[in-house]
Amino acid sequence: MKEALFYEKAANQSIKCRLCPHHCVIGEGKVGLCGVRENQGGKLYTLNYGKLSALQIDPIEKKPLYSFMPNTQTFSVGSYGCNLGCIFCQNFRIAKSVPETVAKEPEEIVLLAEKMGTPSISYTYNEPAMFYEFVYDTAKLAKQQGLKNVMVTNGYIEKEPLQTLMPYMDALNIDLKSFRNETYQKYCNGHLSPVMDTIRFACRHSHVEVTTLVVTEMNDDEEELVELFQWLAAVDENIPLHLSRYFPRYRYDKEPTEVSFMQKMKQEAERFLNHVFLGNV
């Protein structure tokens, strides 16, 4: 375990976590909503530092990143834990439970990336903010060695930790799960505005691509999606948008998204954005 960053003391021996917008108040011996940050003796500890559930080489396009270092490989690392509660989660086995892991130090990850000849390291699979301290330590070392850093994230992070991390992040793919706050609340146990803030901020400091999983009877509404396209274009019409087709997962079993609807929404998105891609079709 490692002492966590971004927390403060609260009343009655409890701790307030400042990593993400949940601002969990965590009592002694308890963990936050993410399940991986625990109050021990009045200090907050991260339980998954260096505990990695996945280590593999991927095409950078799999992140998906289509306009950042195309046709290269990236060394992908993932841990476990998530701060959202999406009932359609595509990676629930590492987001919502503790899988088998291997222990690695940041120096080992950088050496492995160099040995395998990958020009970048991607923090992915589960939510990277949930192993923030490991990502931060590894990304700093990687940057010193001339490697690029990539973060595949739900964007549900507070401004200070994001600002602290951004000097070391070269590219992000950010999930924008819906353009309705009530949908974030009902299906993801979160809120829309922090994700919008993350996209706006990250675009000013790094390469950003956005993914929206189009989920049957959740966000497959033409009016909502057009509003999303318009807002993203107002941020930057050159942001690549990946519209990804949903398949039943975890605790959501609606039919897969209609391919014809995906194609129609791609055409709509291209009215506002210069780079639109379909995934899982």
Task: Give structural notes.
With 281 residues, the protein is of the alpha/beta class. Helix 2 (106-116) packs across helix 3. The chain has 2 domains: 2-46, no CATH class; 51-279, Aldolase class I (TIM Barrel, Alpha-Beta Barrel), CATH 3.20.20.70. It has helices at residues 92-95, 106-116, 132-144, 159-165, 181-188, 192-203, 222-235, 259-269, and strands spanning 2-3, 7-9, 15-17, 25-26, 37-40, 43-46, 51-52, 54-59, 73-78, 102-103, 120-123, 148-153, 171-175, 207-214, 241-245, 276-279. It is built from 8 helices and 16 strands. Helix 3 (132-144) links the parallel strand 11 and strand 12. The chain is 28% helix and 23% strand. The strands form 4 sheets. The protein has an 8-stranded mixed β-sheet.
What is shown here, in short?
This protein is an alpha/beta fold. It contains eight helices and 16 strands.
